[in-house]
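Hello,

Our lab assistant flagged a job as stuck in the queue for most of the afternoon. It eventually completed. Since we weren't sure the result was trustworthy after the delay, we are filing this so someone can double-check. Below is the sequence as submitted and the structure that was eventually returned. Let us know if re-running is recommended.
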Amino acid sequence: MRDRAAADWRPYFLVSLFLALLTNRVLFPLGHLLGQFFPKHDLSLPADALVPFLPWTILIYFGVFAWWFLVFLLIARRDRRSADRFFCANLLAKLICLLFYIFFPTGLTRPELSGSSVWILLLRLLYRVDTPDNLFPSVHCLLGWLCWVGVRGKKEYPFAVRAASLLLGIAVCLSTLTVRQHVLADVAAGILLAEICWLLGDLPALRGLYAALVEKLTRLFSGLTKPFLRR
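-- returned structure --
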């Protein structure tokens, strides 16, 4: 049974999405800036060289954002305890990632790109806008796995949604390797962090802190938008 009125999911979702986007906006530039004061580590293993370079998988790497938005929306519309747990886990994981990016920065050597196919052009775009740091843990793998964990075993979500979340979670983890954006250690750390933060997000104290933050921001959001809605 839902513990909040069904009508409040819209401002809740907007605030939770805002927090997720804000942490991303702060996470990567701050990690890149402050991580420069510490030596970079190369976590590549011999097994990483066995992973094929598949430029077309950039389609998965970029395209999965639309699926994540859908999963975030579906979870936000469920009961608030489950939603708070999911979004709390997401925020907590991003903060932990930031600590790694600052105090344990990593780097990798990307391949030289040749050709003019659409996949190569998209890879060039990725390599230009996303510097080869902020790698361990992989946020792409973290989000992909968290979107699977958030619906895992929950029959209130359609089977197609649960199955697609698992398949896309695996696919996006693989794509981070095949576009040479991450190494195996980054992938493993992203998955592990998603599982740990999913457990931590169910702790009443942490979930309560997140819920209180969202409630405060939602009231602020409602107060700012009310004059416009009256027109």
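-- support follow-up --
The delay was a queue issue, not a problem with the job. The result is valid. Confidence is low (pLDDT under 50) at residues 1-7. Residues 48-104+113-220 form one domain.
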